[in-house]
Amino acid sequence: MAMAIDQHATSEEEAMMLAVVRDLVSEKVAPRAAEIDESGEFPWDLKELFAQNDLLGIPIPEEYGGLGGSFVTYVKVVEEIAKACASSSLIVAVQELGMLPILIGGNDEQKKRLLPTIASGKKIAAYALTEVSSGSDALGSMRTRAEKQGENYVLNGQKIWITNGSVADVVCVFAVTDPSAGSRGVSAFVVEKGMPGFIVGKKEKKMGIRGSPTVELVFDNCVVPAKNRLGEEGEGFKIAMKVLDKSRPGIAAQALGIAAGALEYATNYAKEREAFGKPIGQHQGVGFMLADMKTEVEAARLLLYEAARKCDTGAPDVSLWASMAKLKCGDVAMSVTTDAVQVLGGFGYSAEYPVERMMRDAKITQIYEGTQQIQRLVIARAMVGKR
Ligand code: COS
After folding, report:
1. Number of structural domains in the chain
2. H helices then E strands: how many in the chain?
3. What is the CATH number of the domain that holds 59?
4. How far separated are the first and last CA of the chain, in Å rounded?
5. Overall pTM > 0.90
6. Which residue range(s) make up the domain with 34?
7. What is the pLDDT of residues 63-80, one digit of tens each?
8. Could you report the per-residue pLDDT of 92-120, keeping only the tens digit for each?
9. Who lines ligand 1 at CB under 6 A?
10. Boundary of a domain, candidates 235, 262, 293
């Protein structure tokens, strides 16, 4: 029984789901990971596979077409996929990121209209906050404008580094509606593929997560019906921040999965590869490295699962925990994959082996969904406040 062998599952349903995901990953995802990285193409077949297995709407309530599952289950699913393929894990993680503004800020009509097709995977969702001069300073430097004209808003501006932006049907976009109102001058909109003036711009060439398209989006007098505004005018920035509280654990899960995948590969290698008459893992230099890597991965996992549990319970300190999980898991992903390359030596540096890809994929987890510096800022503010 899956329950008996799954030390991390918190319920029988979760154990069954994770068992299914592990099979899918070993049969369908892992064999494709190197080729997805090499080609840089979005794996549409895996998106279909995840949709068929109900992985794209795990935390969406059943009344809106989702599975009604927990964030804890969701992060474990992302982690399992990321062990083999970081790009593919983003299909699940960004579907969640893109739907959260609707779940958090939308009214009942919007949720009924938009969430079921996202949960089923019929539509792909994305989240557009970042701009050329507005990365960490998401609020102060936002330039994209939305002006009310009759029953519509007209959006003008540009967003960059939008994951899945070129394949998305539904993009939650944040834009300034009142430049004089500070944090209350931003509003959130659902922009749908085909709306006039919604243009997909250039695609980035990246170090890692190469199978996940990262693009620029341009809004050129883009007409969005007012019924697609999420929340009241001026509530957009708070919606954006509340989303990040729940989406950062998803990226932490991706990071943890990358680290766990690299650790498993390096451990098996260290048991097989011999030097000076014994497996290299039995030399203290390598054995102690593996011991540190294992300890870091397990510590990061506990932090992540607690952060996800806080997302489920609506804990008031969820921002703090989401940022701590993202900070720890991102740093562990980078250090563990770097050490995994070291354990494999010259083979680790070769694209014939997966750990160099994992090391390249790990780096972004220290940058996106808020840099590690921004996570520290959120953590410190939660501890000592902000004047
Ligand atoms: N939940 C609800 N409201 C929040 C919030 C949260 N987690 N975080 C901030 N807010 C509110 C604040 O309460 C404040 O509201 P009032 O003006 O009504 O008091 C408002 O939002 C502005 O917050 P703050 O004053 O903290 O804004 P700053 O510009 O100082 O800093 C940071 C905000 C830096 C935390 C934010 O810009 C950030 O997270 N930046 C990184 C963005 C990011 O992660 N980008 C990655 C790409 S998106 S995938």
Report:
1. 3
2. 12, 10
3. 1.10.540.10
4. 54
5. yes
6. 12-120
7. 999 999 999 999 999 999
8. 999 999 999 999 999 999 999 999 999 99
9. 127, 129-130, 136, 138-140, 183, 237-238, 241-242, 244-245, 319, 368-370, 374, 377-378
10. 235
